[in-house]
Amino acid sequence: MDNRWAASERHARRILGRVGVLKQGHFVLKGGNHAEEYVNVRELYAYPVELWTISALLAERFAEKNKVIDVVTGVARGGNYLALGVAYSFKHFASSELTPIRVAITEKTEDDGITFAYQHERHIAGKRVLVVEDVTTSGKSTLKLLRAVRSY
To answer: Contact 90/37 with Cβ under 8 angstroms?
Structure first.
């Protein structure tokens, strides 16, 4: 981990701690994995400035590796909030500010699948897509979204 990313991680931890969403202890996650830390991201959504700051830190990190992204999408529901923040912030760090960055909003289906809301799948075809996730336990939802993105 380079020094700049380490500083960003420390900054993110301070933000998450300040608003009380970074929890320490023993947690059994939805997928059955165990963790010593947990970020209550659903509570983070109540703090838009902090959410946008975290989004900007993520966008900066992605922009270092990927100079051009056309679309940002996230796993419904919370990933949509994060996708909006990352897409908005990405323009400040990307090499090309001329290309508008779109967001493809997702929603869960009744059969526990993932689909694009508002016909946003039309933004995906042939584009460079960044998938963000607010909480990953087993990774199943993220894999479902990746399959949905690749199907277009």
So the answer is: no
